[in-house]
Amino acid sequence: MIVDNRITEYLHSLETSRGELLDTIEKKAIEDGVPIIRSETAALLRSLTAALRPENILEIGTAVGYSALQMCQVMPENCHITTIEKYEKRIPEAKENFRKAGEESRITFLEGDADMWLKELKGKQFDLVFMDAAKGQYIHWLPDVVRLLAPGGVLMSDNVLQEGELIESHYLVERRNRTIYKRMREYLYELKHHPQLMTSIIPLGDGVSLSVKEEA
Ligand code: SAH
Ligand code: MG
Questions:
Q1: Which residues crowd ion ligand 2, with CB under 5 Å?
Q2: Along the chain (216 residues), what's the average pLDDT of each consecutive run of 10 residues?
Q3: Per the confidence metrics, is the pTM higher than 0.90?
Q4: 132 CB under 6 A from ligand 1?
Q5: What is the DSSP letter of 108?
Q6: 159 CA from centroid of ligand 2 (Å)
Q7: Exposure pattern of 54-77 as b/e (b: 16+ CB <10 Å)?
């Protein structure tokens, strides 16, 4: 936990419904243990999407399509989302949710590993990238993501503070979490020192970072 529980509860109490479909998807995802975006982080993603008015969005980690559909609700009419998911169990559910939302034409769903798809996406530029998949891979995907970001584009990364574990001494981190811990610290260091990125790290939800790519 990064943010005081009472503050989080209060923030959650202020959130309003995003419609029956998203409410149903959210409820089911929580029941099924799908790690969808937290409501306070979703609010930031929505505000950012509305403010940027992007034409092309890339999402790494679709899960069942919840965050993609959150963006669809606030992005411009002509905006397009490309989203990547590799977990076979979640793919049909995400497709079904995109269909139910009537958003199939505005979403390109790439099934398979982001390792492969990020290399395949050549000559494309995205105004907004939402990184929300395997935390230990963010550092490896960063060069491709920077290449894919349009000048002035924004990279939003979720779960970057690892429930607050990131500030603990290496020795206090459970062995199985150490690789992610090390890689996430490298990732945040890289985001803050990258010559083409200007980054702000926000202790909201599970930790979010916003990186703006320099203009040309
Ligand atoms: N953005 C979603 C939640 C994503 S959860 C939402 O807020 O609604 C993270 C997802 O990333 C999981 O479904 C997991 O299967 C997927 N994932 C993890 N590693 C991946 C990889 N290497 N390639 C593609 N998807 C990956
Ligand atoms: Mg997440």
A1: 132, 158-159
A2: 90 96 98 97 98 98 98 98 98 98 98 97 95 97 98 98 84 84 96 98 96 93
A3: yes
A4: yes
A5: E
A6: 5
A7: bebbbbbbbbbbbbbbbbbebbee
- In short, whether 131's Cβ falls inside 6 Å of ligand 1 is no
CA dist 123 and 104 (Å) reads 23
Which of 25, 57, 85, 206, when mutated, tests ligand 1's pocket best, judged by the most ligand atoms within 8 Å of its CB? Answer: 85
Closest residue by Cα to residue 57 from 18, 6, 108, 10? 108
Residue 4's SS3 state is: coil
Tell me how long the chain is: 216
C-alpha 171 to ligand 2 mean position (Å): 25
According to DSSP, the β-strands at 126-131 and 56-60 are parallel
Query: Over the range 22-31, which residues count as b (16 or more CB within 10 Å of their CB) and which as e?
Result: beebbeebee
Nearest atom, ligand 1, residue 67 CA: 8
Between the CA of residue 133 and those of 59, 65, 77, 168, 185, what are the distances in Å? 9, 13, 26, 23, 16
> β-strands 197-202, 149-158: how paired?
unpaired
Alpha-carbon dihedral of residues 67, 69, 72, 74, nearest 10 degrees?
-70
> Is the distance from the beta carbon of residue 121 to the nearest atom of ligand 1 less than 6 Å?
no
Beta strands in the chain (DSSP E): 56-60, 80-85, 107-111, 126-131, 149-158, 197-202, 208-213
User: 63: Cβ below 6 Å to ligand 1?
Assistant: yes
Distance 134 CA to ligand 1 centre (A): 6
